[in-house]
């Protein structure tokens, strides 16, 4: 499929929508904000993916912009799966109820220019190319 832009925002999709995304290898922009992606979502090498779920995001290597704003994930996200997304320029985790820090391999995201972490209690590692960083409501991230 040649689809490059997909906006699925403000729906009631749950984790099952993610299996469809595996067909979209040319995707450059994905917006799945304000959906109901509940539970732990493991991006890479997960038992959950073997039965269905979200390793698919790690395979979207053409993706330049990913919006996970307000996805109601309500858990932890195995972020290592994003480390292979070397074309990623914008990543938005705003209000997604995620917990944890960025893995060291995020320094491999050399194209990443914008990272939104609003209301995400996160520890930061080296992101040398980053030009924009939104850290509203993250008091402990800077301490």
TrEMBL record:
<dbReference type="Pfam" id="PF13855">
    <property type="entry name" value="LRR_8"/>
</dbReference>
<dbReference type="InterPro" id="IPR001611">
    <property type="entry name" value="Leu-rich_rpt"/>
</dbReference>
<keyword id="KW-0732">Signal</keyword>
<dbReference type="InterPro" id="IPR032675">
    <property type="entry name" value="LRR_dom_sf"/>
</dbReference>
<protein>
    <recommendedName>
        <fullName>Leucine-rich repeat-containing N-terminal plant-type domain-containing protein</fullName>
    </recommendedName>
</protein>
<dbReference type="InterPro" id="IPR053211">
    <property type="entry name" value="DNA_repair-toleration"/>
</dbReference>
């Amino acid at each position: 499929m040649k689809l490059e832009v997909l906006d699925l925002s403000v729906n009631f999709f749950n984790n099952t929508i993610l299996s469809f995304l595996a067909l979209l290898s040319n995707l450059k922009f994905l917006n799945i904000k304000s959906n109901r992606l509940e539970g732990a979502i493991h991006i890479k090498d997960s038992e959950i993916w073997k039965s269905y779920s979200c390793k698919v995001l790690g395979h979207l290597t053409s993706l330049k912009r990913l919006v996970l704003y307000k996805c109601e994930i309500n858990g932890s996200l195995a972020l290592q799966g994003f480390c292979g997304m070397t074309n990623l320029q914008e990543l938005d985790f705003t209000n997604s109820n995620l917990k944890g820090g960025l893995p060291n391999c995020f320094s491999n995201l050399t194209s990443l220019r914008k990272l939104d972490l609003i209301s995400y209690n996160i520890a930061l590692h080296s992101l040398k190319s980053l030009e924009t960083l939104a850290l509203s409501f993250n008091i402990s991230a800077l301490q």
